[in-house]
Amino acid sequence: MPRDSMLNNEDTVLNEWGQICNQLKDEVGEKAFDSWLKPLSIGTFANGIMNICVPTRFMRNWVITNYSDRIHKIWEKKNPAIKTINFVVQASEDPMFIGHNSSCRSLLKKIAGSPAPQSVHLDEDTALVNDVEYSTIGDHGESLSVPLNPQYTFDNFVVGKTNEFAYAAARKVAESDNIPFNPLFLYSGVGLGKTHLMHAIAWRIKQRNPHKNIVYLSAEKFMYKFVRALRYKDTAAFKEQFRSVDVLMVDDVQFMGGKDSTQEEFFYTFNSLIEEGRQIIISADKSPSDLEGIEARLRSRLGCGLVADIHPTDFELRVGILQEKAKQLNCDLPLQVAEFLAQKITTNIRELEGALRRVVAHAQLLPGKEISVETTQDILKDMLRSYDRRTTIDEIQKKVAEYFNISVKEMQSSRRARTVARPRQIAMYLAKQLTSRSLPEIGRKFDRDHTTVMHAVRKIEELLTEDKSLIESINNLRRSLES
Ligand code: ADP
Ligand code: MG
């Protein structure tokens, strides 16, 4: 088995680590150093992959977020043989420097017996593990990729009717040895699990094949890196970074809207990777054809693999997710409380999770006080009030139809008579003003596309500058909807 010749003895690595620690101490100050970096210890090194032991899961997350990039940079400069740094949760008094296989296997055994059992993958004789206990930075993609969230795995993803298709597609990509569809394009509103699924794919591919070079980054980061490369006239190096990528994941591509040169570069990268048979996974808040400010040729390329959307959650899924998250937080959540929260907080999973965290934190701070619907109501008073106030498009349609003496059916129909068309435009305008729904979402409620909604909003805005009776109607409607 090939070992990195520069670093095949313990002393060299320990020496370098000592120097790095001194440098970091100067950079971050003694206090932060003592709290976060001093407890780290050197683990194994093989095939360019350095494992650093961290005593707790919490500390590992903190170190990854705050110091991993810096550690990677300094070390890489000192020793180019270091390609990847993993942070491994392991008691610091038992650091393991692994120079041969038997000790690798003892590390594996330890992890296999640890409380977060994942199918541990033993990669032939290299014996390197990649499971959720590990978070990889750097990699062959160097600082291109950002760290993966260890909680975002398939095991932690609750599947329901609204996300089962996207889940199945993600799973297929992660489990296949060939490329089932390219690109996989995931889309949904915010906080519904796109990023979670992408990280889950990355973890699973890494677990199955630790040597695959997976790059996960946000569209914003892609843009930032590209603009910086332009500024430093270093686009060749930028392109080079993508050449060895096996799986490229770009999150939230809607942020490339209107950024023409970035799109062009992305288009180039995208095409060349697809041609070479590398897997690409993209996420966005809209379907490829609805992406605003994205060039037509890119939109059409993005949609030419499999497009999978995640729908807004339903009640059942919300209850399921709350139960799963409560379990992760070690909290006994009564079913009534889960149902209460699932009924009240319908926007997205991120907000649902935020509410649960608040409830659990209170309960843990005041042991002995049971979590009940009443205590939950009390803890989330302000939050729930703001949810109650949130207006829905259905309510708007109902109120506006009543106000103008037409039926909701007529409002959603294709009739174009002024008596129906104007109230319809007003309802679309109010939906844009009073809810956080996107134009396509509003359009769907009226059986129209987003351009019709855009036109309606503009029309009403224009009329509002002169039409006094319209101003009055809108004010009345607004008051009654917000009361
Ligand atoms: P998006 O990228 O679509 O905005 P995220 O993937 O960031 O959404 O998800 C928001 C939060 O909700 C994350 O904490 C994620 O773990 C959680 N989440 C989303 N979908 C699920 C699911 N089906 N099961 C468990 N957690 C989920
Ligand atoms: Mg996301």
Bound molecules: adenosine-5'-diphosphate, magnesium ion
- What integer value in Å does the Rg equal? 26 Å
Q: Compute the number of strand runs.
A: 9
Structural class: alpha/beta
The CATH superfamily of the largest domain is identified as: P-loop containing nucleotide triphosphate hydrolases
What percentage of amino acids are in beta strands? Answer: 5-15%
Instruction: Categorize the overall geometry.
Output: globular
Biggest β-sheet: strands ordered side by side in the sheet: 6-7-8-5-9
User: Which parts are unreliable, with pLDDT below 50 for 5 consecutive residues or more?
Assistant: 1-8, 91-142
State the end-to-end CA separation.
72 Å
Largest sheet: 5 strands, parallel
The CATH topology label of the largest domain is Rossmann fold
Mean pLDDT: 82
**Second rung of CATH, namely the architecture of the largest domain:** 3-Layer(aba) Sandwich
What is the count of structural domains?
4
Helix content: 40-55%
Indicate the CATH class of the largest domain.
Alpha Beta
* Total number of helices: 22
